[in-house]
């Protein structure tokens, strides 16, 4: 059906439907004449089991981002015509393997599909293994996008440095050092390197080495 017809059926504006199409949230394609055609949902293989949304951010100061992320997941599910049974939000680093809400979701065999915004929202490393195990159970992970933002990656990177600093220098000093390291990492991401960031005395030789390695991530 045409995008305009789809918009009327869903009770949304054409502008919203177009935004969903451009964001890759619709199973649709554009003809040579420019007309956007949305495939009939009935021709799409139905999902098995219940559908759950999983949204995650790395830190407490990203609560607003978490709310927006969940809203995007809801929009995506609505655009696909999915009936969502569960919405799960979690605040934890993608490098942290102790995420009780995700663990509970993965252990719930009644959940057939877990929708995430991108692979890194599930986990920074090893997402392939989670996806493979779920598929072996007849379940799957559906991702809206394939990549994540540099800002989130910096936050996860800093969480590792904070943990290291706590062990090396003690917790009272770890937060201050982590903040300084984060500022330096952000400069490195922008191909800038203030003099204080190049000093191993300022942030520690081990952290300096890891910060420079961040360029190649």
From TrEMBL:
The active site is at residue 58. Residues 50-188 form the Resolvase/invertase-type recombinase catalytic domain. SMART domains: Resolvase. SUPFAM superfamilies: Resolvase-like. Residues 192-217 are annotated as: Disordered. Keywords: DNA integration, DNA recombination, DNA-binding. The keyword DNA-binding applies. InterPro entries: IS607_transposase-like, Recombinase/Transposase-rel, Recombinase_CS, Resolv_N, Resolvase-like_N_sf, Transpos_IS607. Coiled coil: none annotated. Residues 197-211 have a biased composition (Polar residues). GO terms for molecular function: DNA binding; DNA strand exchange activity. One of its GO terms (biological process) is DNA integration. Gene3D superfamilies: 1.10.287.2170, Resolvase, N-terminal catalytic domain (3.40.50.1390). The keyword DNA-binding applies. CDD domains: SR_IS607_transposase_like. Pfam families: Resolvase. NCBIfam families: transpos_IS607. This is IS607 family transposase. It comes from Ktedonospora formicarum.
């Amino acid at each position: 059906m045409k995008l305009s017809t789809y918009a009327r059926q869903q009770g949304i504006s054409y502008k919203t439907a177009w935004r969903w199409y451009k964001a890759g949230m619709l199973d649709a394609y554009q003809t040579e004449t420019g007309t956007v055609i949305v495939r009939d949902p009935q021709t799409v293989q139905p999902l098995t089991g219940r559908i759950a949304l999983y949204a995650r951010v790395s830190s407490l100061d990203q609560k607003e981002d978490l709310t927006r992320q969940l809203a995007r997941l809801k929009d995506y599910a609505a655009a696909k015509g999915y009936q969502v049974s569960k919405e799960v939000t979690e605040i934890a680093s993608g490098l942290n393997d102790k995420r009780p809400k995700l663990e509970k979701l993965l252990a719930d065999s009644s959940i057939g599909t877990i929708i995430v915004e991108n692979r890194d929202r599930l986990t920074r490393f090893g997402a392939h293994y989670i996806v493979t195990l779920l598929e072996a159970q007849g379940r799957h992970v559906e991702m809206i996008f394939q990549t994540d933002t540099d800002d989130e990656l910096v936050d996860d990177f800093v969480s590792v440095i904070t943990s290291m600093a706590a062990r090396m220098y003690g917790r009272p000093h770890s937060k201050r050092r982590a903040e300084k390291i984060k500022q330096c990492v952000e400069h490195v991401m922008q191909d800038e390197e203030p003099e204080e960031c190049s000093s191993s005395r300022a942030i520690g030789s081990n952290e300096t080495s890891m910060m420079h390695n961040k360029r190649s991530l």
